[in-house]
Amino acid sequence: MKQLFLVFSVAALLAGCSSPQVIKMKDGSTINTPDEVYFNEDTGFWEYEDTTGRLRTVNKDEIVTIDDL
Q: Which domains are seen in the chain, by residue range?
């Protein structure tokens, strides 16, 4: 019984960690991100990891909205 609870707990935790979002740009393009986008106050850029795991940045002035998928 404890093992079953542990399996479901881990599955729920992993499902909650992923927060795919879509960034809508001023030029009309969109960027789909597999995880949440974070704002870096030091640089003034939004940061996200792309689908290959690379860290990408987008200037805050180029973004219209950031929405959950």
A: 19-68 (2.30.30.100)
